[in-house]
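Lab manual, section 2.4: Encoding a predicted structure.

Procedure: take the sequence of the chain (98 residues), apply the prediction step described in section 2.3, and record the output as structure tokens. A sample record is shown.
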Amino acid sequence: MEKPCPMCGRIEDLYLDIIKDKEHQKELIQAFLAGRKSERKFSRRENEIFDAFYDLGIQDFDQIAYNFNISESSVVTYYNRAMDKLTILLRKEIWFIS
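Recorded output:
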């Protein structure tokens, strides 16, 4: 650990860590806001695929396809559409909050 500055008493590493934590919190808030809005923007199936992947942790598109009785290519399509919509929402949130 570094010694504190004799003039101000700050430890540079600690100060930088605080700044990084604040930036990370801002990113989480932006993602949360975009996620809340995405529920209304996603189709029912896009929500189901997105939830299966992130909430249920099923990282295998083939398994998700089996669970929903649809093709793997359909799962990929729904997932990509959801991610495209979420990316647009995140960009809007970043612009709005910044």
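Check your result against the sample. The domain at 12-97 is CATH 1.10.10.10 (Arc Repressor Mutant, subunit A).
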